[in-house]
Amino acid sequence: MTSTAQELHPAPTLEPGRTILELNGLEKRYPGTHALKPVQLAFKAGEIHAIVGENGAGKSTLIKLLTGVMPRTSGEVVWEGKPAALATPHEAMALGINAVHQEVVLCRHLTVAANMFLGEEESRFGLLQQRAMVKEAQKIIDGLGFDLPAHVVLGDLTIGQQQLIAAARATVRGTKFLIFDEPTAYLTRKEADQLFKLIRRLKGEGVTIIYISHRMEEVFELADRVSVLRDGTLVGTRNIAETNDAELVKMMINRSIEQIYHKEHFTPGAMIVETKNLSGKGFENVSMTVRAGEIVGLYGLIGAGRSEFVTTLYGRHRKSAGQILWEGKEVQVNSEHDAIRLGMALAPESRRDQGLCLNLPVGMNLNLPIYKRISSNLLISGAKEKAEADRQIAGLRIKTPTRNALASSLSGGNQQKIVIGKWLAHGAKLFIFDEPTVGVDVGTKAEIYRLFSALLSKGAGIILISSYLPEVYELADTLHVFRRGKLVATHGFRTADHEEILTQALAEKQEKQGGQT
Amino acid sequence: MSTEAIAVEKPKRNYNALFGLTLLALLVLLWVILSLATTSFASANNISNLLRQGSMIAILAVGQTFVIITGGIDLSVGAVVGFTTVIAAMLINAGLPVFLAILITLLVGVAIGLFHGFGIVKMGLPPFIITLATLTSLRGIGLLMTNGNSISINNDAFQEFSRNSFVGVPNLFWMVILVGIPAYVFLHHSRWGRYLFSVGSNAEASRLSGVNVQRTIYMAYTLSGLCAAFVGVLLASRIGIGNPTQAEGWELQAIASSVIGGTSLFGAVGSVHGPLLGAFILATINNGANLLNVNAFWQRIITGLLIIVIVYFDGLRRRGK
C-alpha cells in the first residue's frame, strides 16, 4: 500500500493476445456440493471474456476462487506464467486482480472520494489530504466520463451511480484483470452505457475483463469470447463472432431433464387462493389463482417483483391495492401471523437472512412454526418436540448427527431441507417456495421436487418462484412470467419453449428501443 | 458461505449442561481454596453473608439474560432497583399493606419494561439507547421524588425479612430459588422461551415462521424490569431505606454475571443456571478478596480479567477448537 494515489492507468506488462491467466483443473467442492468441476480455461491479455450460466452454475464460485475469497479444493491457477496460490483477497489484489460486484461493497457513509482511496489514502505528516483526494477523485471520475461529484456521500447516489464508482475505484488500483459480476443488474440503460464505455476503454489500455451477465445482448455487445458454465461444468468457450444467442442458451440449459424433474400431474381441485389486481411495493396489478394439486410457477429475473408479490401475499408487506381471496372469500392479510393462520407457508428466498436460525439446533428450527401445537398450556411437551424433529429429519433425510446439532453446521442442501421441512408438520394448504433450490446440488433438488408431489397429493397448492427456467418449466402446471413488477405472460405446462419464455422475461429488444433511463 | 464450507461435525451434546458444570466446578474450587486460605470463609456467618451478597445480582442477571438472548441489552436495571426502593419505601410509609406495596412496586417494574419494549418495537430505538435513557432519567425522577434524601422505612417486619433465614438458608437466597425455578422452566421448557432464542438468532426467520417478534421483545424487557423491581423490594428491605442512588453500577454486574454464565451478547445463547452461577462466582471473588485483605480496587480488575478469560475460552469451545 502506498500513501499516494495510484496512477490511473496501470500499464499491463503483457502484450495483448498472450495468456495472462490460466486455470488448470480448477475445482471447488463444498460438503454435499460439487460447485465447480475441474475447469480448463485460459484468459488472453486484453480480452473481454464473458461468462454466462444459470444461477448455481458455478459463476460466483469461480469469481470467489479468482479473487481469493475462498480457497480452491484442487487445481492450479497460473498468473503471467507463474503459479499463484490466490489464498487471500489481498494476494489477488496485489497481483492486479479486482472485482466489481453486483451489490456495491463500499462504505455508504463515506464520501465518493474517501471510497475511491479507501485503504490508500493520501496523507501528509499523518494528516489526511482530504481536499487533494477529492480533487484527484474528481479528475479520475471526469476522465472516465462520469457526470458525478466526488465530494458527496456515497449513499446519496443511486445504486447505479454507486456501481460506477465501484468500477472507477477498481481502475485506480493497478488492475490488470477486472471481473464484473452482473454489473448492470441495477443500472439504467444510460448508466449501463457509461459503464460499457469504461469497460471498452480499459480493454483499450490492455486490461483483461471478465464480464458475467444474464443478459445476452450485453454479452454480444461487449465480449470477444464467451464461456458457458452449467452445473459447475465448463460446457464450452466460443468466439463471439462464431456463435449466436440460440446456441448459448442451449449450452446453458441443456440437460438430462427427466432424471431430475419428477413431475406428477394431479387434477386441480378447489381454489385455494386468488389475487385480483394485487399491487404493492415492487409489483403491480397481479391477478392469479392457485388451486389444490397444482404448482404455479413464477419466472423472471431477480428483482422482477416475484418475491415482493409473495411476501405481500404472506402479509410481510402491505398491499397498496387489489384483493386477496382465500378459498373464495376476501381476506385481509395484515401479518405473517394472519397468513399462517389461514394456512399459508413460506420458505423464503434467503436461507441465511430469512429462513434459518443458524446458531440454533436443527430440531428447534424444524419445530419453530408448531411450538404452539406441541405445547400443552405453557409447557412444551419434550417428548413431542423430540418426536416431531426426529420424524422430519428421517422423513426428509436431513444429514445431521442429531437434532441438537446447530443448523449452521449443515451443508446448504440440508439447510434448505430444514427451511422447507419446518412447514410440513404445520399442515398448510398453500406452500410458497421462493428459489427453493439455489445453491443446492442436483440430488437434493430431486428430493425437494419429490416433496412437491407429496404435498400436492395431499391437496396442497404450491407457488414456486425460480430464476432457473428448467425448474419452473418442468414443474409448473401454470407458468407466469414476471418482468419489472408486472405479470407479462402466462403459459401452461410446457406450452411455450424456453426461448420464448426467456425473451418475455428479458424483453431486451423492447427495452432497448424504449431507451429508458 | 462459511457455513456451507463447514463439514457436518460431531454434535456438541448438552453443551449447556457441560458449561454449567464447569462453572459449578470453578465456584467450588474457589470455595475450597478460600476455606483453606482463610479461617473465616467457611464460617456459617460468612457463607450466609456471601449468599446475601450474591442473591440480588443473581436475580438481576436472570432478567438481564432474557433480554440478552433476544440480542438486546438492558442498561436500566441498576437504576430501576434504586428507583423501586423509593417506590416501595414511600408506599409502605404511606401505610399500605406490605403485600400491596410490593405488588405495586413490581407493577412499576413491569411498566418500565413495557416502556422499553415500546421504545424498541414502536419507536425503533436501539435497546442500548432506550435503556440508557431510562437509566439516567429514573435516577433523576427518584431524586426529584425524594428531594435527594433517603426515605427511612418504618416497618420492622419488612426489614427483618431480608435478615432472617429459613432452615438455615438466608431468605434472600430463597428468593433466588423462587425466581430461578420458574425462570428455568420458562426459558427452557416453554415456547415463549424458545421464541426468545429464535428472535435472538434471526428475527426475520422467526417472523416468517409465525413467531410474534414484537410481543417476544416486549416480554423480555418486561421480565427484566420485573426482576429489577423485585430486587428493588429486596434491597429496600435489606438497607431499610428508599434511595434512588442505590445499586449504582449493578447493571454492569448483572451483565458480567450473565456473560460469565455463558450468555452471548450476540444473542440466542444463554441459560438460567449460568448467570446464577456467574453472580455467585463474582460474589465469592469479592467476598474472598475482602477476607484476604486484597485492595478493593483489585476486585474490579480481577472481575474484568475473569470476564475476558471465561468468554475467551467459551468462544474457543464454541468454535470447536
Supply the CATH class of chain B. Mainly Alpha
| Helix/sheet category of chain A | alpha/beta
Q: Tell me the strand percentage band of chain A.
A: 25-35%
CATH topology of chain B: ABC transporter involved in vitamin B12 uptake, BtuC
CATH arch. level architecture of the largest domain in chain A: 3-Layer(aba) Sandwich
Largest sheet of chain A: 6 strands, mixed
End-to-end distance of chain A: 38 Å
Structural class, from secondary structure content of chain B?
mainly alpha
Number of helices of chain B: 14
CATH architecture of chain B: Orthogonal Bundle
Number of helices of chain A: 19
Helical fraction of chain A: 25-40%
- What distance separates the N and C termini of chain B? 20 Å
Could you tell me the CATH topology label of the largest domain in chain A: Rossmann fold
| Poorly predicted parts of chain B | 1-13
Q: Multimeric state of these chains?
A: heterodimer
Provide structural commentary.
- The complex is a heterodimer of chains A (517) and B (321).
- Chain A is an alpha/beta fold and 517 residues long.
- Chain A folds into 3 domains: 46-68 and 97-257, Rossmann fold (3-Layer(aba) Sandwich); 269-343 and 428-517, P-loop containing nucleotide triphosphate hydrolases (Rossmann fold, 3-Layer(aba) Sandwich), CATH 3.40.50.300; 361-426, no CATH class.
- Helices cover 33% and strands 26% of the residues of chain A.
- A 6-stranded mixed β-sheet of chain A has the order 6-9-10-3-11-12, sandwiched between helices.
- In chain A, a hairpin with a 2-residue loop joins strand 16 and strand 17.
- In chain A, helix 5 (159-171) packs parallel to helix 6.
- Chain A starts with 18 loop residues before the first strand and ends with a helix.
- The model of chain A is unreliable at 1-11 and 509-517 (pLDDT under 50).
- With 321 residues, chain B is an all-alpha fold.
- Chain B is 74% helix and 2% strand.
- Chain B has helices spanning 2-5, 15-37, 44-69, 77-93, 98-121, 127-146, 156-163, 171-189, 191-201, 203-208, 213-239, 250-260, 273-291, 296-318, and strands at residues 151-152, 165-166, 169-170, 241-242.
- In chain B, strands 1-4 form a two-stranded antiparallel sheet. Chain B has a two-stranded antiparallel ribbon with strand order 2-3.
- In chain B, strand 2 (165-166) and strand 3 form a beta hairpin.
- The longest helix of chain B is centred in the last third of the chain and has 27 residues, at 213-239.
- The radius of gyration of chain B is 20 Å and the shape is globular.
- Residues 1-13 of chain B have low confidence and may be disordered.
- Chains A and B meet through helix 11, helix 12, strand 20 and helix 15 of A and helix 1, helix 8, helix 9 and helix 10 of B.
